[in-house]
Amino acid sequence: MIVEPSLVHSLIAAQFPHWADLPVEAVGASGTANAIYRLGADKAVRLPRTDGSAADVATEHRWLPRLAGQLPFPVPLPLAQGAPDKTFPRPWSVCTWLEGTNPGPGDAASSSDLLAADLAEFVLALRRIAPEDAPPAYRSEPLASRDAATREALATLGGVVDAEAVAAAWKDSLSAPPFTAAPVWVHGDLQPGNVLVAEGRLAAVIDFGCTGLADPAVDLIAAWYLLTAGARQTFRTAVAADDATWTRGRGWALSIALLELAHYRESNPVMARIAAHVIGEIVT
Q: 260-269: long-range contacts (C-beta < 8 A, 24 or more apart)?
């Protein structure tokens, strides 16, 4: 459904009347999970686009307050949880607004060793958080279990990507030893729409709907989604990724990008462009 600022204003007025006088401004985000609006100067309203992303509201409200104090960069703090009603049928949330911009593939921030070091610091801090009672991450399955879906996506992209090179890269990823240790906290979706940068540095990490316990390789997708080759090596060194973990991380990035490109090629040009860029970085 299309969400207009007037609807957001009416939801706020009905459920959180103490914020009713604050202006509502649409945010030009390309994400697929939430429609995002700025509320006043320091708040954001997030309205899930799908029933699946609606489930993320409870996840973020439960876990972000616990995670935030143990992370070295700002993350959104939930302020209020909206209830479904006749005008909007899903739960929704109000959280803190964080400043910064989403990086674009290959832009100046992507080549910043400082950004690479910041991302590594964030990933390592998240891994160190105690896993007790934590849920499985959205991407907590073994990489090999994505083989059929990944090959199916590749089959739909004939003429769009170098199918032979992509298939070889995917085969190489699957050759890495599987993860067998205890899972750790991961963000689960470290790509441009979910991070904010400023002056080549990490300013904030947002959208924790995929967070939970998983193979730490899942968060290494940041190397290909957010960084160019030189900064990618800085990131790898900082997170001390061994060959097996790095290869699985590359496989996660490739699988996610192939599925995104196949799904969004006609419907979301920004997501498709990012996915194509990631695939190109991996097979180059």
A: 261/153, 261/157, 261/160, 261/161, 262/153, 262/154, 262/156, 262/157, 263/153, 264/32, 265/157, 265/160, 268/30, 268/32
